[in-house]
Amino acid sequence: MTVTQLSAQELFRAAYDNRYTWDKDFPGYSADITFKDDDKVITGQVIVNAELKAEVLGVDDESAKKAIHGQAWEIAIHRVRRTFEETHGANTFRYGATDENGAVEILMGGKAEGDRYKVQNNVVTLVHRHIHGVVVTINTFGVHDTGEGYLSHTYDSVYHEPKTGEQRGGVSNFVDEYEKVGNYFILNRREIRTETAGKIAVQEFAFSNIKLLTPAA
């Protein structure tokens, strides 16, 4: 019996295609938002339209409004369904090391030279990417299995300078919770704990009363 080994590209593509995304019929949604920033509590509304543009209503505090908008945009951008070729068509893939947990490293070449990922159990468990002049490293520890692909549940994120490797800011730990609204899974809570110089800052974004928008006729 011959065992055919998957190529690095095939292994990575399978995990990429296993991510949960919204389909082209996604109508957008509205939600109430309660934003807790350490001791500060701010409420308002969020609308994410069918084009995945985010709008924050009823929040006067500019820094809070910016933080809420940033999260709403981030939530939507990761649910966009793009084909593997659209995202990674200009990249090459080769195997790196396998770590002690059995996660397999995928090293990128081509347009994404210097980026690397890890794949385990059809999930991308590490992202190490050069983006907008920084290097972002994300480790995923736990996922939600929606039955239509996975969503990250617990993960961390840290930024470094590309040239010096110096860390920018603290390490942030995330916990994401989702609910199904109609046919779609939508984030209803995100907690971010960021440790900087021994101090922990906690932010919580709680989305309630989530409703899908009515598609334009």
UniProtKB/TrEMBL annotation:
Pfam families: DUF3386 (PF11866). This is DUF3386 domain-containing protein.
